[in-house]
Amino acid sequence: MKSTLSQSAPRTGPKAARAARPEPAAPDQGGLRYQRIKHYVLAQIHGGVWKEGDLIAGEQALAQQFGVSRMTVHRALRELSDEQIVERRQGSGTYVAQQKYYASLVEIRNIADEIAARGHRHRSELHKLERVRLGRALAARMGLPAGSTAYHSVVVHFENGAPIQVEDRYVNPAVAPDYLAQDFASQTPNAYLMRVAPLEGASFEIEARTPTASAAQLLGVAASEPCLVLHRKTRSQGCTASVATLWHPASRYRFTGSF
After folding, report:
1. What is the reported pTM?
2. In angstroms, what CA-CA distances link 94 with 87, 180, 201, 218, 251?
3. Structural domains of the chain, with CATH
4. pLDDT digits (tens, 9 = 90+) for 175-193
5. Residue 127 DSSP symbol
6. 26-67 pLDDT, tens per residue?
7. For residue 155, what pLDDT is reported?
8. Which of the chain's termini has less CB crowding within 10 Å, N or C?
């Protein structure tokens, strides 16, 4: 018997047109690639390969290293710049930005705890711890008669070895009679006062100004560099517990808050 092999005629019509269409292209992987570049740059910075102020690899070099377009690299570096991790300078390149440390304004926290929460090292240096007589203006701020005795301390706080705060504080002896006997290298004045004089309320003001000669020296900044200055008054046991002036170099510090 002779068999015949028949071949079907090509399909036509809408179903055939749909079947003949090519499969859609795979999604663009540029997003994943730019994230890889961001992670790489962050790893280099956090690992200490690129330090604050260092010029990092350029767009062309990163594009070649990762096998991507310069547009993908540009997106990664632009986002890092928006996040203030790097600083882009026209015609010069991309540099590791100076890190800014944060402090909360809504909650009065011990600066040592703030620093520890960031995974950084805190250290403090005591520069003054003394008994003083208050002038008229300072006595008025503390709600005490002019000429009253108060305790005065000046402490510099460091984060990862960099001075980030000069704490100039006056304390009411009525709420912390043992203030002068404390070791403020092992605990902060704030931690001690929160323990012996629980906080009932606080008020504060912030201003930007150039530092005093003393503050500039303690912070290791130029006399012309702006500082963020927090003036804070705390209350406990029905009276003013302390008034403090806290100096921060504006180039590496910022305040945040939410409620």
Report:
1. 0.61
2. 6, 49, 45, 30, 18
3. 30-96 (1.10.10.10), 101-256 (3.40.1410.10)
4. 999 999 999 988 999 999 9
5. E
6. 333 445 788 899 889 988 887 789 988 899 999 999 999 999
7. 97
8. N
